[in-house]
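Hey everyone, long-time lurker, first post.

I ran two proteins through the pipeline my lab uses and got sequence/structure pairs for each. Pasting them in order. The first:
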Amino acid sequence: MKQFKLPDVGEGLTEAEIVSWKVKPGDTVKVNEIIVEIETAKSLVELPCPFAGVVSDLLVDEGTTVDVGTPIITVDDGSGAAPAPSRDDAAPPRDDMAPPVPADESAIGTPAEDQAVEPGLIGGPAPGGRTSVLVGYGPRTTSAIRRPRKGGTGATPAAASAAAAQQAVQTSMMTTPTPVREPELEHVAESAPAHTVGDSAGGNGARVLAKPPVRKLAKDLGVDLSTVVPSGEGGVVTRSDVEAAAGGAAQPGSEAAPAATYRPEPGVRETRVPVKGVRKMTAAAMVGSAFTAPHVTEWVTVDVTRTMELVERLKADRDFRDVKVSPLLVLMKALLLAVRRNPEVNASWDEAAQEIVVKHYVNLGIAAATPRGLVVPNIKDADRMSLRELAEALGALVDTARAGRTQPAEMAGGTITITNVGVFGVDSGTPIINPGESAILCFGQVRPMPWVVDGELAVRQVTQLSLSFDHRLIDGQLGSMFLADIARVLDDPATALLW
């Protein structure tokens, strides 16, 4: 018997929620087979099994949050008996757990070969004296001390064994998400991707396909997913299917509704939702930013008729036919050109050193609203990319965010961000700066409005931009010049040829 303990997945993880099991007791698993999906404070992660055998017990229920080092599954590998704690022993109250030894934060995002791990092997020595283990579960070369949990009271047997917890699961094991087909999706408001539900097999042995929010709805309504007739593409069970099976009326378009849509029972006046995962991380980051960086916001209204004409020409261009072209793409290029003309905008504040750090690269963040909350992945070295390369990078970013697979490394190191509220029919806003960055640009909806052109009133495509910036880094003049430069390119994209 062997126990698989929740590992630190390479991002300084201290705890995670068990979202869904991909196996059930009695299933045979192979080395590196995906057995569970967890949600950390930043993303969804699929964990593979580091050994082969037959699943004996699932020690933690779906929806439960456990600390790193906690046993979550027992697998019979034929090696004989091993300590098999009960569910109560395996997942004690989190406040009573002693701090396990997490990953060295300096190793975040480090390839497996740099962490003294021999790829693809289990046990035994490797050349150079290293220990050959499964990729992602190598031995620690250093240790770090986890921040103490408030209210912690002492150690437990589960926590005492945490130092031997398996190593980080590499993000390269993630499933590639499906392409985005919606023409105006920059903010991502779709539910998470469909997954195979290991404990919902039908009578013919086929596994049921359903998204996590749909799976949760079925559980809440007491619906057995294996009895539901799927109507989604590829045999995916939708929310409407579950509601129909439960006797409720399916709502048109409800499949695309955000995961946080609540349908209270008659007479219920309040619903309490635990703050955890991405939502918890975002809340802390936004509060910290709002009360640390002195925010200033400026607005400008722009005639983007010529930008919209450019977008249509690019869509018809053979060099852009296989990528998504949108007004956001042109805005991204305009911002990068404005940064080149106003490099002091692209900076950060070093409180400890009392220095302003001007960045000579632009990691352009795109705020994305996912079912699990706001994430801000960024495009690395966006200033070095052509318009075509930007389009490809934006498409990949949106695909990953839609699937809920944005990894911590993709959200780290941003320098400036764009948030697109226009896709929701909103004109503008006063966004909060992403922590560690200098500014965030808000892009409102593009809509026809009366506009004066050459002294004559005409109907033009108009949008509103708002720029929130850190007044420690950017004074009013610099912020105004930067915003005005962006507006100039959107008003007349040919201006970019002059810069």
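...and the second, right after it:
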Amino acid sequence: MADTAVSAIDYHFGGLDHLYAEAQARALSEAGDWMEARIVQLAALEEARLDASGVASIVAATIDDWTEGMRPLAMAWREACSSARNGTNLASHTAWMLLWKHYWDRVSALVGMPQHADLLAAFHGGEATQHLLRWKRALDRALLDETVRALINHLHHVPRGPSPVRKAYQILAERDYACAAEADWGSSALLDVAAAEILRDAGVSALTFRGVADRAGTTLGNASYHFGSKSKMLKRAFETLYRMSSGSQNGFRLADDDALREALLDGVSAGNQSILRAFDEIILHISRSRDNAALRGVIRGYRDPAAGWALERLLHEDEPISSSLCSAFSSICRGLDHLSIATGTEGSRKIAQAVLDQFLHR
């Protein structure tokens, strides 16, 4: 792109690591300028005493403007998190986390929710990751609005309604992907498990037909026939990993509320949860290009039954929790997981505990 020799890059930056650090530093500077400009614009709202609807509009607009209008910077933000999870360039990821914390500290005060700054920062961390997935623009934005509204209404003790957009989104996405919500998991289960284990242990880059075949002890032809395409292998790997993870958590269904709460805190504070890592890996992988459009819709509207039953238990409500609130809670958990990479288990657990208490109205 610079119309120069490859050797000039090494000479100018002093190595690939320095090139990455320089690119991240530039992205961080531009993102800081963008955030500052937004805060200046939002300062007029400080005396407005926004209701839940107004706050939801501000939060949704931030996420949408960041992921759409500033997409190159948003992708740099995501790449920094991925690198840090894999053990490199932790400084860049930590700088991004501090930058967003500063932004949400100031914005939450402007909209009259200063006590929820860490919660909003965590939610943004997970939900903006999701919103980077482009499927159908109008529906993507409607889904974001409904999810943010469910969260802010919950924090403001506003009665929660159904989730018609998410329901329609899920049906259309699954139809577009041409697969049923519940596939036949009895056939070639070893291949699905092998794909899930590779995704969990080594990430998307290691997920190949040959790698899965070798791990399952079968032929390349069998793996190719079973999955048919890389996108279907990704989806089946993720769903299988989710089922494996959910199965390992079944014991907590019988545990008391305190044990369940501690399990959730442990899960989002360790920074190495397989289901969260797999979700992040898939989203980042398919966010990098315009391929796998149908898969983007399926993953964007993915159902999270574990979040549903956990919230029903912890919120002590007889009625089912809306799927939009479940999705908002899942985004908070993913954001807290990203935080744990930067701050470590002890520091992130304190924040996670405060955020969970706020979400549960304790």
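Reply from user beta_strand_b:
Welcome! Quick read of the second one: Residues 1-177+258-362 form one domain. The radius of gyration is 21 Å.
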